[in-house]
Structure formats: C-alpha cells, structure tokens
Write a structure and sequence with these properties.
The protein has a domain of 133 residues: Immunoglobulin-like (Sandwich). A six-stranded mixed sheet has the order 1-3-4-5-11-9, with no helix packed on it. A five-stranded mixed sheet has the order 2-13-12-7-8, with no helix packed on it. The protein is mainly beta. It has one helix and 13 strands; from the N terminus they run αβββββββββββββ. The longest helix is centred in the N-terminal third of the chain and has 21 residues. The termini are far apart. 17% of the residues are buried.
Length: 201
C-alpha cells in the first residue's frame, strides 16, 4: 500500500513538471489596445482643439484678399473684401445686404424693399462712381438699376479718392431668392459681382 501511495505522488510530480515545461510562457501584461485615429488619445496630432493630421488640407488659402478686373472678373459673396482694379487704379470694395423690412408678411409679397451697403476704401487714385455702372440681377436673370445715394440718402459721391473712403446705399424692390450685385466698367463688362439672397418669408 505504501508503494502505491509513493508511486501516485511521483506520477503527479512528473505530470506537473511536464506541464510546466511544455506550456507557453505567461504574458507579463495584456497588450495595449490600438487606439483608432482621431480617438483623442495622447497623439500629438490628436490633442483637443486641433485637427487630426490625416484630414485633407484645404487647397485654397483662407483669409486671402482677391483681385478683380475686366480681364479677370470676380464673383464673391456679401462681406468679402475685393480689390477692384479700374481706370488704372484700385480700391477695396465690400458689399453687405440686402437689408429688408421686418419679415413675416403674409401672403408673401412678390417684391420687397432691399438695401445694400457698398464701402469703397484704400483707393490708390481717383476712381469715378457712375450709377449706371451698377446692376442687380435676380435668380431669373431680370436686371434692375439700383438707386444709388450716400448712406444718409443724400446725393451719392461721384468719385472715390485716396484717403477718403465712401459708403454707398444701393436700393431697389427685389423678389425673394438669390441674385447678384454687379459693378461694371461701362454698364456691360463686369468687374466684380457680389452674390446675395433676399429672404422675406
């Protein structure tokens, strides 16, 4: 009986020793999970408040000031600053609007009083202001001649000179929808166009 007991302990020892030799080595720690791109980990390119490096870069510089001339007309939007080349000089032009009366009329009127404000500054020489050179087109291509005055509705200046910025008020009754305010060189050839949207609903 004693020999069977000793033999059982010896066999158990052999089995345990063999398992210890044959099993794969234990991992000291679990592998760190790979963090997906853009997950906000400690990657220097993914810190809070910055864009991930893998996003495509904008091909066109932002914040630039564009140039407009009869040779290279430009189409911008309200609030853009455009350097307008005309009569051998250039001037910065910024148009905002249209400002319309209080919205909410029903039924919706076919047209509404629309006021644009055009600021001309930084002129490098005397540039004439000719009212007939300004045109407005609605989204169906209809043409309108704006009434042009000074900001206080007095007579509009006839020229913009260096060191003397001017602000013009352009007014007409326009239908709702998109359109363009165009400054031309002679009433025909566009130099700069400002896109707008009239909302009266």
């Amino acid at each position: 009986m004693l020999w069977f007991t000793i033999g059982g302990f010896a066999l158990a020892g052999v089995i345990v020793g063999g398992y210890a030799l044959l099993r794969p080595p234990a991992q000291s720690s679990a592998p760190a999970a790979a963090s997906p791109r853009g997950s906000g980990t400690a990657d220097s390119n993914n810190t809070y408040g910055t864009l991930p490096s893998w996003l495509p870069k904008a091909p066109i510089p932002v914040g630039r000031v564009v140039q407009a001339s009869t040779e290279h007309p430009w189409v911008g939007i309200e609030g853009d600053t455009v350097v307008v080349h005309m009569n051998g000089h250039h001037v910065n032009a910024v148009l905002v609007g249209p400002a319309v009366p209080e919205e909410g009329d029903f039924p919706i009127p076919k047209t509404t009083a629309s006021t644009f404000t055009l600021t001309l500054s930084g002129a490098t020489g005397s540039i004439p202001i000719v009212p007939s050179h300004f045109l407005i087109f609605d989204e169906e291509g209809h043409r309108y001649l704006p009434q042009i005055t000074s900001l206080d509705r007095g007579p509009a200046p006839t020229v913009v000179r260096p060191g003397h910025p001017v602000t013009l008020r352009l007014f007409n009754y326009l239908p709702p929808g998109a359109g363009e305010v165009v400054w031309t060189a002679d009433g025909k050839r566009p130099v700069v166009s400002f896109e707008y949207v009239t909302e009266i609903d």
